[in-house]
Amino acid sequence: MASEMKKVFKKKKEDRIEKQYFEYAKEWIRIYISQEISTYFEKKLLENALEYNPQTKKEYEKIYISVKDCYLDFSNHPEKIYPFIVSMLDYLHRCWVIDNHEKFFTRNKNYEHMISELIWWKRFKVYLKYLAPYLRHFKIRYSVNWIRKEYNNQIFRYFEKYSIKSEDSLVYRISLGKLFFPELAEFPEILECITDEKYVKKHIIPSIKKQGTDIARWMKKVEDEEKKFMC
Fold this sequence. Notes:
The chain is an all-alpha fold. The chain has a domain at 14-164. The chain has 11 helices and no strands. It has helices at residues 2-35, 40-51, 57-75, 78-99, 121-124, 128-137, 144-161, 167-174, 188-194, 197-211, 215-230. Helix 1 (2-35) packs across helix 4 (78-99) and helix 4 packs across helix 7 (144-161). It is globular and about 50 Å long.
């Protein structure tokens, strides 16, 4: 009897947490639809997800019918799924930075307020719990390992695009302020810090090296790729 009670309690707790995540992500994803989504399917999927009530099976079935052809095609093309998921997680991170900008000065975790490419997989993966309910409700199968691979690809593309091969080049990139991370444009007190190269070197780079992305790894990879190209 006690074990059954524990199972019931655990299930209720899980349902409550899932609902919390679902609601928490709702407005973020609504904004994402209007600003970021370009393909018809992604827009259709998320617009319908916003109307979905986890407790209303009939509504879910109606949504399922309306998008099933699209998402069945989508689920068979990992080259579409994983960039889509990573772009959504990236968007959720940017929204978190905006919603929690005051934490930049209240705890020693400046790396969390950098772009997704600098926060490390363990931190980036946290946002999956907000997106997972949508993917689950629409039966979109995904692999966390493949999400991680796509995230790593995004990191490499960023380092390669801006030719970041040294700490100094990364410091310079961060010190561009709103050009580096446009979402920080509305927080002048943060911009004042990150546009100061001395501050970046003393506080942000050590924070990234301690808890964020392994920048040395990606710098070396960019150098190695350039050497291959030269050969």
